[in-house]
Amino acid sequence: MKTESVVTASEETLARPDERHSGAQKVVFLCFTEPAEGTSAEDIRPHLDEHKAWLSAIEASGALMFAGPMLGADYRYSGSGLLVLRADSAAAVRRIADRDPFHARGLRVFRLVPWQINEGRIEVHLTLSDSSATLA
Looking at beta carbons, which pairs linking 43-46 to residues 24 or more positions away fall under 8 Å? Predict the structure, then answer.
């Protein structure tokens, strides 16, 4: 069962930082994704390759910053996931999330939260001799 995604007028407003905070003031969107009620791993499995292809496509477009599963206390997949998405508005990010094959088929549901990045550090190590990169 596919859930209908409704875009509100406020979602059309361009994302902008809360300038009362200092730092990078970069607004991105957290997309928390969960299995829809009654959905099993067996329901999702046939669509996994299509989901991964969709992730690769939005990564190549620049819209996907990070994505991955949530882990339980035992460091095993909990069933939940998180995507960090770049978009100009909540409406634009909703259109991206709606196209996830899992969401489009009603197998998973998602919740979007704007997030302002102010502080942090990301290190990337590039090795020229073998053209490799690692995230530290």
Answer: 43/107, 44/102, 44/107, 44/108
Give the chain as a 3 state SS string.
Answer: CCCCCCCCHHHHCECCCCCCCCCCCEEEEEEEEEECCCCCHHHHHHHHHHHHHHHHHHHHHCCEEEEEEEECCCCCEEEEEEEEECCCEHHHHHHHHHCCHHHHCCCEEEEEEEEEECCCCCCEEEECCCCEEEEC
CA torsion 7-11-14-16 (nearest 10°) is -150
Q: Do 86 and 28 meet the contact criterion of CB atoms below 8 Å apart?
A: yes
Backbone angles phi, psi at 2, to 5 degrees: -85, 135
User: Cα dist. 132→33, 52, 55, 60, 136 in Å?
Assistant: 31, 22, 21, 18, 13
pLDDT tens string 41-90: 899 999 999 999 999 999 999 999 999 999 999 999 989 999 999 999 99
Phi, psi of 82 (to 5 degrees): -140, 135
